[in-house]
Amino acid sequence: MARGAPGSPGPLWKQDTVQGMERGSRVWCRLGPDSWQLGALQQAAANAAECYVLLDPVQPGMPGSVTVTDASNLVPANPPLLDGISDLTQLSYLNEPAILFDLFLRYRQDAIYSLAGPVLIAVNPFKRVPLYSAETANLYKHAANSKQQEALPPHVFLVAGKAYKAMYQNRQSQSMVISGESGAGKTETTKIAMKYLASLAGGTGMEDQILQTNPLLEAFGNAKTLRNNNSSRFGKLINIFFDNSGRICGARIQTYLLEKSRVVHQLPGERSYHIFYQMCRGLSSAERAQFGIPEGERGAAAFAYLTKSGCISIPGTDDARDFQEVKNAMATVGIDASGQAQIWQLLSGILWLGNVEFDAGPDESVRVRPDQALNNAAALLQCNPADLAKVLSSKVINAGGETILTALKMDAALDTRDALAKAIYAALFGHLVSCINTALAEGKRQSQLSLSILDIYGFECFQENSFEQLCINYANERLQQQFNKHLFQLEQATYQAEGIDWTTVEFEDNQECVDLIEARPPKNVGVLSLLDEQCVFPKATDSTFCAKLRESLSKNRRFSWNTRIPKDEFMIEHYAGRVAYNCLKFLDKNRDSISPDLVGVMLGSQAPLLQLLAGELARVQERKGAQTVGSRFRDQLRDLLQRLDETELHFVRCIKPNEKQMPAQWDAGLVLHQLRCCGVQEVTRIARAGYPTRYLHADFAQRYSILLPSLTAGPAGRDLQVCQQLLQHFRVGPNMYQIGHTRIFFRAGVLGQLEDMWARVQRGVLLLQSWWRMLGCRRAFLRQRAAATHIQASWRGLAARRAYAELRTCHYAALILQTAWRGFRARRALLHAVSCAMCIQMAWRRAQVRRRVAGRRQRRAQAMAAHTAEEARFDNIKAHFGLDAGGILVALRSWQHLQQLQAEFGVDLPGIKAVLQAVQTGSAPPITTPIRQSSASPLRQGSLTPQQRPAMPNASLPRGLSRGIDSEPPSPAYSTQEGNWQANAIAGSPGQQTPGASSASRPAVLSASAHQQIAMWEEYAGKLEEQLRALVQDNQLLQGALQAVRTSLASGQPSSPASTEADDRIPASPAGPGTSGASDDYFNFSNSTPGDSQGGDARGDAASGREFAVRMKEEFDRKKALFEDDAAFIQEVREGRSQAVGMDPDQELRILKLRFTAFKRDFKARLAGTHSALKQIEKQEKKAEDRARRVTSSEVSTPRSARQSRASRDSDDGWPAADSRVSSETDAGGKKRNIGTKMLSKLTFKQKSPEIRS
Question: The pTM is what?
Answer without folding.
Answer: 0.57
